[in-house]
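Worked example

This section walks through a single chain of length 945. The input is the sequence exactly as stored; nothing has been trimmed or padded.
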Amino acid sequence: MKTMLLSPRHNLVEAILPLLEGTGKDYSGNLVVFPGKRPSHFLRKALSREMKGSFIPPVILSMDEFIDFVYESRPDGSHLKLEAMDAIALLYDLHKRSRDPLGGDHFMTPDSFFPLGMKIYMDIEELLIEGAPPKNVREIDTFLTEAMPRFSIGRIQTLSYFYEEFYKWIESMGMSTRSSRYRMVSETLSGEDLTPFREMIFAGFYAFTQSEKALFKKMHTRENTAFLFQNGPGIRERLLDLGIEVANPPGEEVEPEVHFYKSPDTHGQVFALAGLLKKELEEGIQPDEKSVIVLPLAETLFPLLHHTLSLLEQGNYNISLGYPLQRTPVYGFLNSLMELINSMEGDRIYLPDYLNFILHPYTKNIYWNGSSEMTRILFHTLEEELTGLRTKSFFTLSEIEEDKNLYQKVLEMLPVDETGVTIDVLRGHLKTIHQNTIGRFLTFRDVEDFGQKSIDVLHYIFSSSTARLHPLFFPFSEAFIQALRALSKSLMKEIHFTETRSYFTLFRKYLASCYTPFEGTPVRGLQVLGVLETRNLSFDRVFLLDMNEEVIPGTQREDSLLPYRIREILGLPTYRDRDRLSAYYFETLCKGAREVHLFSIENDEKERSRFVEKLLWERQKIDHEKETGRYFRPVQYKLRLANKVPEAIPKSTEMVKLLKGYTYSATSLDTYLSCPLQFYYQYVLKIDRREEITEGIEKADIGKFIHLVLSRFFERRKGVPLQQRDVDLGEMDLLIDDHFEKVYGKDPVGAAYLLKGQIQAHLKDFLRNYTLPLIKEDRVIVLYVEHDIRIKKNLFVLKGRLDQVEVRGKKTCIIDYKTSSNPDFLRIRPDRLDLSRRETWSEAIGSLQLPYYILLYSEMSNKRVEELDALFLLLGRMVINREMEVPVFLGAENQREEFERMETVIFSLLREIVDPATPFEPTRNRKEGCPGCDFKTICGTQWIG
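Given that input, the structure is written out below as tokens.
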């Protein structure tokens, strides 16, 4: 037996080569075992370099593969190896049979049990591989010297039930697990198991389970076995525990050149790394396999891929790590489909979730006739159509599929060269998409059926859309299909849930433990590896990202049902052991390099890794330096913090011509008075605010509904004096019921249901506490409801829609309903208005709407201004009474004079709008006007709070 302790500077793979015995070019009589799989690629490449030609390589296995090799080579080693999902299914059966189930009634369904089952399985596998006697687990309370909560004792005793029963059961079923194989091989290993091999080499091990210790002690006595270890913190104690004593490795340790970088976020460190790489490429230096980028966090991969690795040609780098399936676009697609199904009410789909699903890139790019253009037009038109009906939150699929108006709009938007498309074709295409996606997920027979239907959906998207052209779709979807097949073929396959959402819950929890492998095999070019993939490998240059405490070592929390103290008693590894393991691999990786670049994120939420702090402290002691600042290269962004002020827009000849022929409304004039630039975007460029589906109901929709109900109520009472019997609360309820069903659907739920009750109560209060006292006090006759007026005066065309016009006593009153409660933004303050000073107009005038309506009605009816009155009714007030009125000329002594001043403002503004010499200026009052403006992004005034 040969044992060697190598310096981290000594390449472990290169040290193996002299120990291999070959017959010519045949090295198959050698067995090499590493802790993991990655070093095998480097060993084969190193051997190829030495042989300078073809050869038969040694048998190179990871430790898990070695155990499986020995186990399965035996006559009694035919026991099927359980997948984790199968093991959890068996544990679930044991859980249901238990007289005292863990958690009582809380984990009695498969989806709720799955996360717990995962922890139980990990814990009992650890107990078995560490050789913990079932009796010790069962009677753990006798080993405790301090008080332990009764719940914890009960949890551990329940765990002992699983520990004892599970392995008996799988043995009787002819099954095995990773730990049961380790345990059996370590206890029964003999020379006969390894007769095919002349030489055996175990290289790069550090942490040993009890099963591995037993196995290594047996191997230690064999003459044809060599052990190679790398020197690092704690290795001697580990070897002494195996009964192995080794001499110090020859040669002096050479410390690497270490560089530190700090950035405010993930992208900052990626940009810094890209800067280093770009500089080298400009100098003609091409990174090779002696350089490695280490990614402790898989989520950093795609920023790295887009901003750093994009500088290299694809064949000049190699990625090998596991990426969480839950972070892939394929998961996003399936999750949007599951969210849609979860939010359904019976056969009705929830509109926001439906739009999220059909607008997913995979869905909206489904082919028709070899192109995805028609589907995109169809779904974006459908988005506009349904968004316009946003007051109704639920639709059936058949309602959408039979919407002829939708198809007609699509036909109008299709390119002129698109032939063969008819309404029936569009309807059939939409139905096909619904059937192959939503339709498949409406019901499931059991878990197997769910898994198969999920695979069918992915196959449909792969074969029928542009998804397969997206980067990495194929490996991601392949990993999903493998996971779904494992689920549908597992021992859980016959489980049936009463609720569809339970299948989705199980799937999500299962997927949390699934990864898609980036299994790069070419040992060529820059290496991008996860932390575990770097074990036993040597690199000249190391770039370590995300060097923060919660990432490296990141082991403070035990993901186990066993508390720290009990793990100690039972001889199980604790987070302290994992800390030591992380420290060992970090140090051997760094000390094996010539230069090391450490990148960490520094902000209010993250702190540097203790490993970085240790290296810094060692540097500070050498330099007698108290501060660490000078050792870091900060990554800083160049930010322009200058606040942009919008520029004025000059008027072209075509623009002026358009404005002179425009028909103006009170709203357009109010917009211009508030901000001429906003008027330009809204009425000249005709940029509309994009309508969106929201979770709640927008105020504008509530206002439209209330206007509709009140207009219908008073429409029936026009032309005659209102009587007390006209205040019919029952009729108001019926009107609200009728129109609510038309606007929000037959069975409103959630916010719509609550809103209906609020509107009914509020409008009945309006009739009781405002309308009824009004008609008792004065003679009231409704003349017009929702009355449109269009006039031409002073060369301008003006229009308006008056909510209600009624006679009150001797005056005709124009009424405008507002669903707000605040009159401040509507009032006109004559004392602040100076006609000679244009800047005072927007400060003094909240809204020109009422004087504008008086102008329209006076021109239409030939009535004098003195015969007219106008007011806002603030329906949003909590208390309904006459104080909800906001008259236009409140407290004015001379109504004619005040109106003429407003008329001067109206026509001055109109002449200003069409004046070529007057550009569209931004508002003077940006603090009030910009924060709520739809065009602040265009103007660049988002900074105004």
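What to look for: The two ends are 75 Å apart (CA to CA).
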